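pls design
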């Protein structure tokens, strides 16, 4: 799921927030969030929905199934 990791990193940087801030938002460890952006792990369903809501995009966009953000 390389597209997920790439899009997550891109969206975070657009907002100008750190990986630690994202980890805090998701209530996970910093290393776990780093693994999301590194492509080594994926969030559970609730985490995926929370990320989509936070960034104002669809889950399909995050997952690379669509190039339309909203």
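designed seq:
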């Amino acid at each position: 799921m390389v597209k997920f990791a790439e899009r997550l990193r891109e969206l975070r940087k657009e907002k100008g927030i750190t990986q630690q801030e994202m980890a805090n938002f998701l209530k996970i460890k910093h290393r776990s969030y780093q693994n999301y952006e590194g492509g080594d792990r994926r969030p559970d369903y609730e985490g995926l929905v929370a990320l989509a809501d936070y960034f104002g995009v669809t889950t399909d966009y995050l997952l690379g199934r669509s190039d339309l953000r909203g």
